[in-house]
Every structure is written in structure tokens, then in C-alpha cells.
């Protein structure tokens, strides 16, 4: 039995890119640069079952441990219509450093879970844990068809996890796929931020999943003493995206939650010059300036020749942004990972926003002419 267990650990170590150090294993991924952490020996192999991560107080009844806090970002990432539930767990006595409100710093031992369900059936639960060396451990667990157990998925992910429309299937992403999004900005944690948890919620945000009374928001976290160091201005005036219209606010919010983790001014794609991540100022100007009437640098394969701008006010059909979010042709589609289906509600919202942008431009022109 001991030989079998050792063999299994060796296989996991090779799969997860683990290196032996002094008889222990540490995860060989890039350091979380927001904090100076002292590396400590740690076994960084994810638990074999979801039950072992500590999410549930009673796994038989799937009762969540009450010490974990449910939360819901106001602009959630869309994943082929999956219904999601999310929880955060902080070590007792620890706090989140909010001194940089655009990038929370989480204490060692912080855990996150995100559960995906389709048509009432749990399909996967993703797991993040802040390790003692400052790194984040990534894992995903696939639920059995009867919903009685959830086993660790290979670091390569799992295709065909659940059937979707049009013969497509939901894919549980691999570790490197997760990192491609999570490591695209100033913080590896997505969906848990000052803007996403602001009590000044956008009533028109797409795909909002939980009501406020079912989870914590920024005010709750501050009142409980779990987030410290936030600037007084953030506490006095909850952040929101200030936009020219309700449609624009929702559109900018959708792009923040679904595109901004890669397209921002701090990540590896900053040279593209597409800045869809909202800062706490929330005025949306960077996103508008880098999309509206902004020329496409290099057309993607399958993009129509008349799509010369990322957003052409008044002409959604010839806006490159619309063509990319409306497609699931691999070389053209956006987002490139995490979805198999087109988000029809998002397409309708962005179409309306671009059309209204054209109307606003016409009205401004007529007003100037009337002078």
C-alpha cells in the first residue's frame, strides 16, 4: 500500500510541476509578486477530493462550513450559462490588505472555491489556496454524475465534462489555462475586488447570480474587520462605473468581468493597448478610449475587412469587438478560453451600446450644427 501511495504522489508531482526540496515538495510556479514571502517547505499537491479541501462541514449533506463566506461579483464571468456559487475562507485572525484597492493582498492560507452547475447538476468546483511561499495553488474537482463525490481533475483538465447545445461540451480547464487568465493582471484572484463587491451594485449587470442578502459585499467585509487599509474615499463613496448611460455602464462592467483580467494596463497583453479592466475611479475612460473609434491593429482571421475599428459608433455589425464576441471560430472568438457557446445576452448588450454610441454622436453633431 505504501508503495502504491508513493507511486501516486510521484505521478502527481510530475503532473503538477513539483520539485523536491529537502524531502518536501513546493509548487514550481511564479511567485505572487505583490507580497514579499519567505519560502517555506510545503506539500503543494492538491487534495485528491473536494471534501478534503474543507469546503463542507458535512459532505454527506453538502452543508457548507459556516466559517466560509459566500460572495457574488456584480459582473460575473460567463461560462456557457453555468450557475456559480463562490466562497472565501480566511485563516482565523487574519485580514485582507486593501491599501491598494485595485489589488487586494490576501493572507497565507486564504482559500477560494467556485462551483459550476448546469441544469441543477454540479459539474465542477475550482479551488485556489494561498500557500506559505506566497504562491497560489490551483485545482479543479469533477463531480460524479450522482453528485456524491468530487475528484481531483488532471492538471491538463477534462474535456466532455457536461453536454452543451449544438453538440459542444463543457471543458474543465487545465491548470495552465486557469493561470492564463488569473495571471493576466495585478492580482491572481478574479471576481473578489472593491468594484466587484461594491454595495453600489449595477441593476443592469448581466448574469448576476446571488442576491446581496445571500453573501457578503465590501461593506460587510469592512464591518467585520476582514478588509483593512482601504482609503477613506472608498469607504465614503462606494465605487461604481460612471458611464454616459445605464447601457454603457452595464457594457463596460461586462467587459471588465469577462475581458479585463487579460486586457489591462498591467498584464502581459498591455502592449495591445486594449484596457477593459476598470480601476476604482470607475470612469470607464480607458476602456472607451481604447475601443470606441480605435483602429484595429491587426485583423484576426475571419474578421470582415470593413471592421477597421474595435468599436465603430452606430455600426455594431462592422465593429471588430462585436465580431469577436459573436464568434466561436477558434482564431476569432473572444474570450479565447472558458466558453464553447456565444453569450447571446452579452452580444445583445454590446450591440445596443455601440448603436446608442452612434445616436449620441449624431445628437452631439446636430446640437453643434444648431449653434
Structural class: alpha+beta
Assess the beta-strand content as a share of residues.
Answer: 15-25%
Low-confidence stretches: 1-43
Biggest sheet details = 6 strands, antiparallel
H/I helix tally? 8
In angstroms, what separates the terminal alpha carbons? 87 Å
* Structural shape: globular
Q: Got a strand count?
A: 14
SSE succession: HEEEEEEEEEEEEEHHEHHHHH
What would the average pLDDT be, to the nearest integer? 87
How are the strands ordered across the major sheet? 5-6-8-9-10-11
Helix coverage percent of residues? 10-25%
Report the radius of gyration as a whole number of Å: 22 Å
Topology overview:
Layout: H1 2-15, E1 18-21, E2 24-27, E3 56-58, E4 63-64, E5 69-71, E6 83-89, E7 96-97, E8 111-118, E9 121-130, E10 136-143, E11 150-152, E12 158-163, E13 169-172, H2 175-182, H3 218-223, E14 227-228, H4 232-236, H5 246-258, H6 285-289, H7 320-325, H8 344-370
Parallel strand pairs: 7-14
Antiparallel strand pairs: 1-2, 3-4, 5-6, 6-8, 8-9, 9-10, 10-11, 12-13
Amino acid at each position: 500500500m505504501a508503495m502504491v501511495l508513493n507511486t501516486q504522489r510521484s505521478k502527481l508531482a510530475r503532473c503538477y510541476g513539483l520539485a523536491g526540496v529537502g524531502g518536501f515538495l513546493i509548487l514550481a510556479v511564479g511567485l505572487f509578486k505583490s507580497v514579499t514571502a519567505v519560502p517555506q517547505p510545503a506539500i503543494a499537491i492538491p487534495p485528491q477530493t473536494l471534501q478534503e479541501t474543507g469546503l463542507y462541514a458535512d459532505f454527506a449533506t453538502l452543508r457548507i462550513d459556516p466559517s466560509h463566506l459566500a460572495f457574488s461579483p456584480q459582473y460575473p464571468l460567463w461560462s456557457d450559462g453555468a450557475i456559480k456559487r463562490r466562497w472565501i475562507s480566511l485563516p482565523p485572525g487574519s485580514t485582507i490588505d486593501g491599501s491598494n484597492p485595485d489589488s487586494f493582498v490576501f493572507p497565507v492560507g486564504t482559500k477560494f472555491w467556485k462551483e459550476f452547475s448546469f441544469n441543477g447538476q454540479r459539474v465542477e468546483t475550482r479551488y485556489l489556496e494561498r500557500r506559505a511561499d506566497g504562491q497560489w495553488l490551483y485545482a479543479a474537482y469533477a463531480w460524479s454524475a450522482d453528485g456524491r463525490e468530487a475528484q481531483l481533475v488532471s492538471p491538463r483538465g477534462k474535456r466532455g465534462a457536461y453536454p452543451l447545445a449544438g453538440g459542444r461540451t463543457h471543458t474543465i480547464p487545465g491548470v495552465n489555462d486557469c493561470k492564463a487568465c488569473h495571471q493576466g493582471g495585478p492580482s491572481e484572484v478574479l471576481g473578489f475586488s472593491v468594484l466587484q463587491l461594491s454595495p453600489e451594485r449595477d441593476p443592469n449587470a448581466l448574469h448576476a447570480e446571488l442576491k446581496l442578502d445571500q453573501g457578503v459585499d465590501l461593506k460587510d467585509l469592512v464591518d467585520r474587520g476582514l478588509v483593512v487599509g482601504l482609503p477613506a474615499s472608498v469607504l465614503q463613496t462606494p465605487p461604481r462605473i460612471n458611464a454616459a448611460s445605464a447601457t454603457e455602464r452595464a457594457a463596460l462592467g461586462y467587459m471588465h468581468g469577462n475581458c479585463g483580467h487579460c486586457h489591462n494596463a498591467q498584464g502581459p497583453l498591455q502592449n495591445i493597448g486594449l484596457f477593459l479592466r476598470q480601476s476604482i475611479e470607475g470612469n470607464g475612460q480607458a476602456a472607451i478610449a481604447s475601443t470606441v473609434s480605435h483602429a484595429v491593429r491587426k485583423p484576426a482571421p475571419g474578421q470582415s475587412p470593413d471592421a477597421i475599428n474595435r468599436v465603430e459608433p452606430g455600426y455594431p455589425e462592422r465593429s471588430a469587438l462585436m465580431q469577436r464576441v459573436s464568434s466561436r471560430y477558434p482564431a476569432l472568438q473572444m474570450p479565447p478560453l472558458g466558453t464553447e457557446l456565444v453569450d447571446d445576452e452579452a452580444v445583445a448588450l454590446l450591440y445596443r451600446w455601440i448603436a446608442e454610441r452612434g445616436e449620441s454622436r449624431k445628437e452631439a453633431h446636430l446640437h453643434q450644427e444648431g449653434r
